[in-house]
Amino acid sequence: MTQPEMTGAGDDSARLDRLEELARHLNHLQASAPSAPATPVLASSPPAREPKAAPIDKFNGHPEKVKPFLADLRTRFMLQPHTHANDAVKVLTAISHLEGSAKAWAAPILEGYRDELVENYTLFTQELQEQFGDPNLHDTLAEKLRHLRQTTSVLAYANDFENLAYQIQWPKVVWGDTFYHGLKDQVKDMLIYSPVSRTDYDGLKCQAISIDQRIQNRERESKVVNKKAAVTTTTTTYATTATGSDATNLTTPRQTTPGPRGPRGPLSQAEKDRRRAAGLCLYCGEAGHIAALCTNKKGPTFAATGTDETGKVQAQAE
Q: What is d(CA 155, CA 147) in angstroms, rounded to the nearest whole number?
């Protein structure tokens, strides 16, 4: 009975030794094996939903719009690689955004006469650029860059400038001088005090943007101050001219209005002469009657009938 038990224990020990040996051998093989290249996530399993891309403007064959159109297509293909997984899908996507003369050019492709373009997106874009691109595009863009001027902010001007400069592949060392000449005079005047050289485009751009922002802040501040001053002036004017207000009584002369009046002081000789010459009443200053017949004064009036009354009227008028 003792011998079998010893034999079983020896077999278990042998099995454990064998397993340990195999484990060491497996570890050695894994350590010596070359590491497999990492598999891209996009290639292994497509995402549940690809990001949305901005709408692409239709291309009508205008030479200056060829490159922007192809750039928009490239952006969409990069954002949605699984949707546009092969050249045929890319070509058909591009054709679906053509109109006018460009759409007419692509008609033979859709009708099956140019299958080589459907199967090769690179060849398709080459022929599209040859057909509609500007043969003198470099010179055209260079001329446009030289005449570019700042019309809004320096930041917007810099974006337009760099877009053109990169397209014509200008060396960056010559950017600064052309960029400086396109700035507004107000920004140039402030750059006089900057030590940045025109050959340092990046430094020049940063200084110009900073100056332009300070100018804009100052203009906004001035508008607020002027607006408050205008409101204050309007309020003051209204207060001094409002009808029936105390300010009117203090700042504007009271106008004489017709109607019953109380006793008044004597008129100066100059005022009497003026009223007589103008045919005005010596009492109220209105036309059409004389003082003796003035209805604006209190007390009885004389009827202008008879010799005695007429004489009295004439005497009072004189």
A: 17
